[in-house]
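can u do me a favor
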């Protein structure tokens, strides 16, 4: 089948553009990965989930995607952290690479096609530096190699920064101009280093991504992604050194996700300003929540839903209720899907419109199917919150129709297309991808830990309630039900016994 055409906001042009691949039917995507000096936090997870969902959606729409995400395992931050802990820098980096992979597995992310490391790309990095030196775009000074920014006339085209406005922040002798940046850093005692034509040293930060992208995607490729905080200087410098070396446009499209910012509980003061603004989540600010900590309390899909229910380019506010609210919304969708499953039936979309009457009009607008509207949202700059809004419209329609008397008399409407819609969302975005009982089991396991209970405690209360009901002590039985309901635990009585779940209105579980 032919790939689905789509549009994407290009940071380079500041416009939404039609995506035109370099090779028909194929997408080459490079995303800047982690600098592995610590555990990944939920700010990092936003980028991880956004590009994972983007890749899933592209592949579901018949694009052949080559997804590359790197590890920066040689860096000043790693060296400093290793010195503080007394650990070998290589061992520290390896430990945090494994931690990242554990987090990625916990989040149920697809593995990239290639996951290169700086330490395993030294030859490619040195080859690129050598080429820049031969072309006159760099110079050697005191064992380091520096890129000459003023030689690239388009410098600043991504970030709108100008070289003359930049200051010398490297604090390294031998640098000739404030805007020049390091391609190769001369080694210091005790630091990791590699032999090179310019003396022992290690790569600068920016050259690594240019070299690894070139190795796995070529000198020019389709989409370069990453957080908005990388636009300058990292992505700006990648463009400069890559386009000078190869004489080609580096990436056709630049896709940047917004930051996760922490709600500081700021209060309004006079003039409409805040006493304290939301902060970027950052280890240096001490406001970090690690992915593993979040996954101990919440299902992976709750994090995924939280990120995708905001547009990828917008800043996303985080506070201690964020994941609880996302989980509550996700549970309502699972509940609606379960209700549709219970109604059962077979049929086509046109039949559903007839059967659901007015309720269906909010889902199939002017005769357009859920799939058409869902796809349209994602083809227009990957608008995941708009696509998800159609899931909630579908859920509301299902819930309204399930209450209609005729549905009960018939034994269920024709809702097969509704179930296909939920499956379609799972395939394209990776949400609603679990069996209902598996999802609820995961929610229960994490929620009762937050309450300080065990499943055995709850089953004991259910057994006590059953005994009171058998003895016709209805007040005592109701007391137990109410006690559990106050903790957001709902009991469901069946012929075979009583089961329990967490109510979908739960918002009280906090990190």
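np, heres the sequence
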């Amino acid at each position: 089948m032919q790939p689905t055409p789509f549009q994407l906001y290009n940071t380079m042009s500041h416009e939404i553009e039609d995506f035109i691949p370099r090779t028909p039917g194929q997408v080459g995507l490079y995303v800047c990965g982690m600098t592995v000096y610590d555990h990944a936090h939920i700010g990092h997870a936003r980028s991880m989930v956004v590009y994972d969902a983007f890749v899933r959606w592209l592949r579901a729409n018949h694009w052949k995607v080559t997804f590359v995400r790197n590890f920066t395992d040689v860096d000043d931050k790693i060296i400093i952290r290793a010195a503080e802990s007394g650990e070998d820098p290589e061992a520290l980096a390896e430990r945090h690479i494994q931690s990242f992979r554990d987090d990625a597995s916990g989040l149920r992310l697809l593995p990239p096609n290639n996951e290169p490391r700086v330490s395993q790309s030294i030859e490619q990095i040195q080859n690129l530096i050598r080429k820049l030196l031969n072309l006159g775009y760099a110079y050697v000074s005191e064992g380091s190699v520096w890129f000459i920014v003023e030689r690239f006339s388009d410098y600043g085209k991504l970030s709108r920064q100008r070289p003359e406005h930049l200051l010398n922040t490297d604090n390294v002798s031998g640098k000739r101009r404030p805007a020049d940046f390091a391609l190769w850093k001369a080694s210091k005692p005790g630091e990791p280093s590699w032999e090179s034509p310019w003396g022992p040293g290690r790569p600068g930060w920016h050259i690594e991504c240019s070299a690894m992208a070139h190795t796995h995607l070529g000198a020019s490729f389709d989409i370069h992604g990453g957080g908005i905080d990388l636009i300058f200087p990292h992505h700006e410098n990648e463009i400069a050194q890559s386009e000078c070396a190869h004489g080609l446009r580096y990436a056709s499209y630049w896709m940047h996700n917004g930051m996760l910012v922490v709600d500081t509980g700021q209060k309004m003061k006079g003039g409409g300003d805040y006493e304290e603004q939301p902060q970027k989540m950052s280890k240096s600010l001490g406001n970090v929540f690690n992915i593993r900590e979040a996954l101990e309390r919440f299902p992976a899909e709750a994090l995924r839903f939280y990120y995708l229910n905001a547009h990828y380019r917008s800043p996303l506010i985080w506070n201690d209720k964020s994941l609880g609210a996302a989980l509550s919304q996700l549970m309502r969708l699972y509940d609606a899907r379960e209700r549709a499953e219970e109604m059962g039936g077979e049929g086509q979309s046109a039949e559903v419109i007839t059967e659901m009457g007015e309720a269906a009009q909010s889902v199939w607008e002017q005769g357009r199917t859920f799939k058409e509207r869902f796809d349209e949202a994602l083809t227009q700059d990957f608008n995941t919150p708009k696509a998800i809004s159609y899931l909630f419209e579908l859920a509301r329609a299902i819930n309204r129709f399930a209450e209609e008397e005729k549905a009960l008399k018939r034994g269920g409407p024709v809702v097969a297309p509704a179930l296909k819609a939920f499956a379609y969302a799972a395939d394209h975005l990776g949400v609603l991808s679990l069996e209902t009982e598996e999802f609820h089991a995961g929610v229960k396991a994490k929620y009762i830990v937050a309450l300080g209970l065990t499943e055995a405690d709850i089953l004991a209360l259910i057994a006590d309630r059953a005994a009171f009901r058998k003895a016709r002590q209805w007040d005592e039985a109701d007391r137990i039900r109410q006690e559990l309901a106050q903790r957001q635990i709902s009991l469901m009585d069946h012929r075979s016994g009583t089961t329990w779940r967490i109510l979908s209105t739960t918002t009280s579980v906090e990190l």
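The first strand starts at residue 7 and ends at 10. hope that helps!!
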